[in-house]
Amino acid sequence: MQMIRKGDVVGLRYDIKSEKDDFEIYDIVKDPSQSNDLKKDSKFLNFQKLFKAEALRNRAADTSAKRPYDEALIPAILLKNEKSGFNWRFFKTNTSWTANEKGLEIDLKGETTSINSVLAKSKKNGLYVFTAYINIPASGAYNFYLKATNKFFIKTHQINMLDADFDYKSGTEKTKKLNLEKGLHPIKIYYKISNSNSKNDIKFEWESATMPRSIIPQSAFYKN
Fold first, then answer.
1. What are the residues whose beta carbons fall under 8 Å from the beta carbon of 36, sequence distance 6 or more?
2. Domain of residue 31, residue span
3. Is residue 28 located within the same domain as residue 129?
4. Hey, what's the torsion of the CAs at 207, 211, 215, 218, to 10 degrees?
5. Could you give the CA distance from residue 191 to residue 188 in angstroms, rounded to a whole number?
6. Is pLDDT at 197 greater than 80 in this prediction?
7. Is 209 within a domain?
8. Are residues 172 and 138 in the same domain?
9. 143, 187: one domain
């Protein structure tokens, strides 16, 4: 069973055979017993498409927990007025892990086209959070590789993409395969500065069947 909720509307589906399977749709406030399926109601047609997209954006394929839609493409995001680069925020925190920024007070913030240029200027210990959209040039399977001086954690959509938090050894490479639709995908990079006197940088690469392994260019990242 799979359930997704958006506001008062809930999508449910059972015995899933593919990513194209329809959701049952209910107004959970007006119909808490879920007795009136609204999937054929014209007012709720957009929710079918939304729920199917969100289901794919919520998880990556996992060999230990296979799903019939593991090879489906994770849908891209439509974005208007995007500009090249990243937004970034810095939080002063002394935790030994890459803490969630919720509840923390922003110490510094800005925009950049290069993460490493921001890290090179850092004079404080704490947490950087970089947000952007990565432009996937063609639909397909992509391998991502990242290694860094310090701990990091990366999300795309609601997917934990690369986790180098607990017991991470500096310079160790982390990798992840994702099936991505052509277009823009949100990306959030957490980077922990634990020694501001040392060199801090990251090396972020990608490859696909039609693209050799290479550093992801600055031109691939957009913000809004």
1. 26, 27
2. 2-57
3. no
4. -120
5. 10
6. no
7. yes
8. yes
9. yes
In a domain, 145, yes or no: yes
67 in any annotated domain: no
Tally of domains in the chain: 2
Question: 60, 82, 39, 104: which is closest to 220 by C-alpha?
Answer: 82
Q: Which residue has the tokens 């995001």?
A: 77
> What 8-state DSSP symbol labels residue 22?
P
Q: Is 140 left (phi over 0), alpha (psi -120 to 50) or beta?
A: left
> DSSP alpha helices (H): ranges in 33-141?
45-57, 115-120
pLDDT digits (tens, 9 = 90+) for 99-151: 788 888 999 999 999 999 999 998 888 999 999 999 999 999 999 999 999 99
Cα radius of gyration rounded to whole Å, the chain: 20
Specify if 218 maps to a domain.
Answer: yes
Q: What is the pLDDT of residues 2-26, one digit of tens each?
A: 999 999 999 999 999 999 999 999 9
- Domain with 102 in it: what CATH number? 2.60.120.1560
Is pTM, for the whole model, over 0.85? yes
Q: Do 173 and 90 share a structural domain?
A: yes
Quote the tokens at residue 154. 């990366």
User: How far apart (Å, rounded) are the C-alpha atoms in residues 45 and 201?
Assistant: 46
